[in-house]
Amino acid sequence: MLRAPGLLKHRATKGFVLALALETDPSPPFLSRCDAGDRPLAGASLLRHHFIHSPSSSRPSLSIWRRKKEMGKEGLFVIHQLKRLRSGPQFDQFMRTHVTRLLRTDLLAVLAELLRQDNISLSMKVYEAVRKEIWYHPDMFFYRDMLMMLARNKGEEETRRVWADLRSEAVRFDQHTYGDIVRAFTDGGLPHLAMEIYGEMRSSPTLPSLFRSASS
Fold first, then answer.
1. Do residues 50 and 18 make contact, with C-beta atoms less than 8 angstroms apart?
2. pLDDT per residue as tens digits for the range 6-48
């Protein structure tokens, strides 16, 4: 929804150049935006500029996966054993006999802790276990947390796997979540992935029509 001209100018003074451009030209080419010094922005610099200076994209998302229950003894034991075994036949057996038998709250708490520790390999193992549970249902915040962790740790191959999974489940991100993810990959040193995700965002039906028209 378009704001009053005075508000748009106020945001522009804080660096939100896109809002000012929309005020003067409702449909300018998005890729011709300039920074405060009238220098053209392109590629990852454009993405970083657009999302960092957008007030709405900086609001923290309320993820159901962050409203965790306290880790129980069983969860602590599982994390310790996963980190000790790491891979191999014993690891696979432990996944079958212990991880898949955890209660829902414990399994999600284990995954949340592994994400917090930035442990890519174990997070991916537990992520796959979660998706096989009968109670699992696609959730954008579940995928958001996975992607944010992978962005922090430059997990490009794992990112493509997770992105393929969420697309197969028809998961849609809202505007703010897309902004957080694009910014995370830009800051994490994976601008090419940020550009790919940004391209997905532009074609998403959940993107407000104002931003679709600005980026077309």
1. yes
2. 443 344 333 333 333 333 333 333 333 444 444 444 454 545 4
Instruction: For residue 166, tell me if it sits in a domain.
Output: no
> Within a domain: residue 163?
no
List pLDDT tens digits, range 154-182.
Answer: 999 999 999 999 999 998 888 888 899 99
Segment 117-133, tens digit of pLDDT: 999 999 999 999 999 99
Half-sphere exposure of residue 104, counting CA atoms within 13 Å on the CB side? 8
Burial-class residue 170 by CB neighbours within 10 Å (0-12, 13-18, 19+): exposed
**Which candidate, 212, 130, 142, places its Cα nearest to that of 171?**
142
* Long-range CB pairs of 185-188, under 8 A, 24+ apart, other chains included: 185/147, 185/151, 185/159, 186/44, 186/47, 186/48, 186/51, 187/48, 187/151, 188/151, 188/152, 188/153, 188/154
CA separation, residue 207 to residues 26, 118, 169, 176, 200 (Å):
17, 30, 18, 10, 10
* C-alpha distance from residue 23 to each of 4, 6, 19, 83 (Å): 9, 10, 6, 54
What residue numbers bound the domain in which 123 lies? 66-137
Check: pTM over 0.70? Answer yes or no: no
